[in-house]
Every structure is written in structure tokens, then in C-alpha cells.
């Protein structure tokens, strides 16, 4: 938290109320969002791809500290059955303030009434999401563009029948 001008986490928590929340893509700088993904770290994603995925998501949250984008999250949703929370990322200087929790809770609130709310957790983050009410799924299956990479990372395992 080197760039925060707060002497403690408690002060930073109070300061969190000063952050600005946006729920549309009107003022998003896609290059800035791409950079946030790199440093969060959530991967190397092209600005033009991020524009497509966020504009095609029903719900989105962008959190700013002054004019600096410090947190994001989105949910793909069909309006009734499924809402899929994805791409929650927090700037490293603002992690551990509860912003990730606040973004997930806001996306869950937007998704209230859906039959199921699903998210894909990064490895090691499962306890964080469990504290927010999520249960581990035992039957989820996936097809990845770079299958070998996610097999090597341990994100999926091969089922042979």
C-alpha cells in the first residue's frame, strides 16, 4: 500500500468511502483497465478485448480513487437463471482494504433473484469467496482455448473414460 496516504488499514477503510463507483462503461479508459489487469495480476488482456467483454456484461463495477481506476468486476447474466461473476481485479496499492469484497457483494446484489450465481476463482482464493457465501462446485466442466496451459497450471484435470 505504498501509495496510500493513510497511516493504517483502519484509516484506509474509512478513506474507502471517498472512492467513486461507476456501473457503466461510459468513462472507462481501456488502456488503463488493461494495465490494471497486468498489475493486479489478472493477465495480459488487450484493451479492445476488454471493451468487448465489459460492454457485453450485464453488470459491471469500476472503482476510482480520484481519476485512477483501482478496482473492477463484472457479471455476465441472462436475466433469470445464471449470473457469472468474472474479472474482479484490484490495484495492488489498494488491495486488502475490502474493495474486492465490496465489488463481489455489489455484483451479487445486482444478481439477486437469479437461480445461481457462479464465479471462477483463482487458485488459492477459494477461502475468500467462501466467506462471501460461495460454495465449491463439484461438477463444473470447462473448455479452455489453451487447454495444455490450464492443465499444467492445475486449474483443470483431465477425465478419461
Task: Walk me through this protein's architecture.
This protein has a domain at 9-119: Aminopeptidase. It has six helices and five strands; from the N terminus they run αβααβββαβαα. It has helices at 9-15, 30-39, 47-55, 99-110, 126-131, 147-153, and strands at residues 20-22, 59-65, 68-77, 82-90, 116-119. It starts with 8 loop residues before the first helix and ends in an 8-residue tail after the last helix.
Produce the secondary structure layout.
Elements: H1 9-15, E1 20-22, H2 30-39, H3 47-55, E2 59-65, E3 68-77, E4 82-90, H4 99-110, E5 116-119, H5 126-131, H6 147-153
Parallel strand pairs: 4-5
Antiparallel strand pairs: 1-2, 2-3, 3-4
Helix pairs in contact: 2-3
Short description, anyone?
The chain has 161 residues and is of the alpha+beta class. The chain contains six helices and five strands.
Strand count, sense and barrel status of the largest sheet are: 5 strands, mixed
- Overall body shape: globular
CATH class of one domain: Alpha Beta
Structural class call reads alpha+beta
From the structure above, extract its key features:
161 residues, alpha+beta, Aminopeptidase, 5-stranded mixed sheet, 20% strand, globular
Amino acid at each position: 500500500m505504498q501509495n496510500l496516504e493513510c497511516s493504517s488499514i483502519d484509516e484506509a477503510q474509512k478513506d474507502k468511502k471517498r472512492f467513486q463507483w461507476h456501473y457503466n462503461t461510459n468513462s472507462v479508459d481501456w488502456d488503463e483497465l488493461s494495465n490494471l489487469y497486468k498489475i493486479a495480476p489478472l493477465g495480459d488482456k488487450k484493451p479492445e478485448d476488454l471493451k468487448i467483454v465489459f460492454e457485453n456484461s450485464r453488470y459491471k463495477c469500476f472503482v476510482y480513487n480520484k481519476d485512477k481506476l483501482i478496482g473492477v468486476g463484472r457479471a455476465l447474466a441472462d436475466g433469470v437463471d445464471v449470473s457469472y461473476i468474472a474479472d474482479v481485479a484490484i490495484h495492488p496499492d489498494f488491495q486488502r482494504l475490502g474493495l474486492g469484497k465490496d465489488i463481489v457483494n455489489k455484483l451479487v446484489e445486482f444478481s439477486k433473484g437469479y437461480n445461481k450465481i457462479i464465479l471462477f476463482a483463482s487458485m488459492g482464493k477459494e477461502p475468500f469467496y467462501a466467506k462471501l457465501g460461495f460454495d465449491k462446485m463439484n461438477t463444473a466442466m470447462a473448455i479452455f482455448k489453451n487447454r495444455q496451459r490450464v492443465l499444467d497450471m492445475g486449474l483443470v484435470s483431465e477425465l478419461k473414460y
